[in-house]
Specification:
Elements (H helix, E strand, L loop, with lengths): L3 E2 L8 E3 H8 L3 H9 L5 E3 L5 E4 H15 L11
Parallel strand pairs: 1-3
Antiparallel strand pairs: 2-4, 3-4
Helix pairs in contact: 1-2
């Protein structure tokens, strides 16, 4: 489903790979890899440019944030 041609590219449901990279704080190469691996959903324009579904970017961002900070760890430094 991720490689469907997107009919309404004027919709704000889709963002460019560059914008997705900015939101995810990764390179466009990483966004391309995420898309190819199915971690990001979207489609292609009639000219073949990838457009990423905005909700899949926000979902992946949440997963990446949770992975980086699974919880707060308190240390007791009393001696």
């Amino acid at each position: 489903m991720r490689n469907l041609y997107v009919l309404d590219m004027n919709s704000d449901r889709y963002i460019s790979m560059k914008d997705a990279a900015l939101v995810l704080e990764v390179s466009t190469s990483t966004v391309r890899r995420y898309y190819d691996e199915g971690l990001l959903l979207g489609g292609r324009t009639a000219k073949g440019h990838r457009r990423i579904l905005r909700t899949s970017v926000s979902d992946l961002r949440e997963k990446l944030i949770q992975k980086e900070s699974p919880g707060i760890i308190f240390h007791n430094n009393r001696r």
